[in-house]
Amino acid sequence: MAIKVGDTLPEAVFMELTENGPQPVATKDVFAGRTVALFAVPGAYTPTCSAKHLPGFIEKAEELAAHGVDDIICTSVNDVFVMGAWGQSSGAPGKVRMLADGNGAFASALGLDMDASGFGMGQRSQRYSMLVVDGVVKELNVEKGGSFEVSSADYLLGQF
């Protein structure tokens, strides 16, 4: 069963590449007492994710902050090194935190995982965005199929 507006995020541990190497980051440490724009992509460096999804949140970081967003998080079922490199090459540092859901545990716990084996990608996360306030989902925008319509930074900004 998929997460819905009003639900509390499940406990999970992401990995984040820092100056000190890979570090575990618990959901409670990311979301407790904060307003967070969270978005997920099926894969780092994939066409829509790299050309539209991540860049949109990077470009709108200041506007989201002006609406009270404390942090913008991008997650994907990729390893921490891929997420770190993708963030660096995309200009994310200081604007969007790149948190790896390497084994897909967070995507699965949300009920927003998908089987992308047909594309040689295995289990992945669906594309979505959400606004999370103190660990509770306030807005949730899950894309259908291969679409990119409701999970963009602009769409999320329209929900404030």
Structure description:
By secondary structure, this protein is α/β, with parallel strands linked by helices. It has a single domain, classed as Glutaredoxin (3-Layer(aba) Sandwich). It contains six helices and nine strands. The strands form three sheets. A five-stranded mixed sheet has the order 5-4-3-8-9. It is globular. The model has no long low-confidence stretch (mean pLDDT 92).
Keywords:
single chain, alpha/beta, 6 helices, 160 residues
Overall helicity: 25-40%
Cα-atom Rg, whole angstroms? 14 Å
Mean pLDDT: 92
Order of helices and strands: EEHEHHEHEHEEEEH
Spatial shape: globular
What about the largest sheet?
Answer: 5 strands, mixed
CATH class: Alpha Beta
Give me the number of helical elements: 6
- Beta-strand residue percentage: 25-35%
- The total tally of domains equals 1
Number of strands: 9
**CATH architecture grouping:** 3-Layer(aba) Sandwich
Summarize the entry for a quick read.
Helix content is about 30%, strand content about 30%. By secondary structure, it is of the alpha/beta class.
SSE inventory with pairings:
Elements: E1 13-18, E2 21-26, H1 27-31, E3 35-41, H2 47-59, H3 61-66, E4 71-76, H4 80-90, E5 97-100, H5 105-110, E6 113-115, E7 123-125, E8 128-133, E9 136-142, H6 153-157
Parallel strand pairs: 3-4, 4-5
Antiparallel strand pairs: 1-2, 3-8, 6-7, 8-9
